[in-house]
Amino acid sequence: MTVKTIPPIILASSSPRRKELLNSLGLAYHIHPSQAEETFDPRNSPEMVVQKLAHQKASDVARHYEQGLVIGADTIVVLNGEVLGKPKDESEAFQMLSRLQGETHTVYSGLAVIDADSGKECVGCQGTKVLMRPMGADEIKAYIATGEPMDKAGSYAIQGLGATLVDKIEGDYFTVVGMPVALLARFLHQFGINVLTVARQS
């Protein structure tokens, strides 16, 4: 039986959590972090913003290749219509977490897969609601002191110590981590890659 050759897969991100998610699917890939400037129109909907950012990253990397599937992803945290990005410093992290505590916010993860050869692309996103438990100032400062919040949208990581801050979620956990895995599998299937078959062969 002839085994179909899988095209090269390029992850346009150096995010450890996204690497772990791709590893969990048994996919062979290499990393080429995007250098695209992450700009967006704040008047656009969160869904449009996060899809545009993911597409910017994938497009920036795809132009360097003649073949291969480039995966771009981006995650934003939205509270009462306001996008909360990565904190600039500990003071901003404290402000974000103080606003999020006791409240429900939405995490959106955008995903783009671009075929560098044909230019075919799939772009989409998913959103998940997250309820963060009430916290006092001392607890927030203790979490910030771990260093975990400093490179995370919304100043927390649900896959790390930030899990202790979350009461419940409504939606896809992996969207909060930073890459909606089921959506990625659907996109890859459109390029002829069945992740279940790949897992069985590995």
From TrEMBL:
Its cofactor is a divalent metal cation. Its main location: cytoplasm. InterPro entries: ITPase-like_fam, Maf-like. It catalyses: dTTP + H2O = dTMP + diphosphate + H(+); UTP + H2O = UMP + diphosphate + H(+). The active site is at residue 74. Its EC number is 3.6.1.9. Keywords: Cytoplasm, Hydrolase, Nucleotide metabolism. The record marks 17, 75, 159 as: Important for substrate specificity. It is found in: Cytoplasm. Nucleoside triphosphate pyrophosphatase that hydrolyzes dTTP and UTP. May have a dual role in cell division arrest and in preventing the incorporation of modified nucleotides into cellular nucleic acids. Belongs to the Maf family. YhdE subfamily. This is dTTP/UTP pyrophosphatase. It comes from Caldalkalibacillus uzonensis.
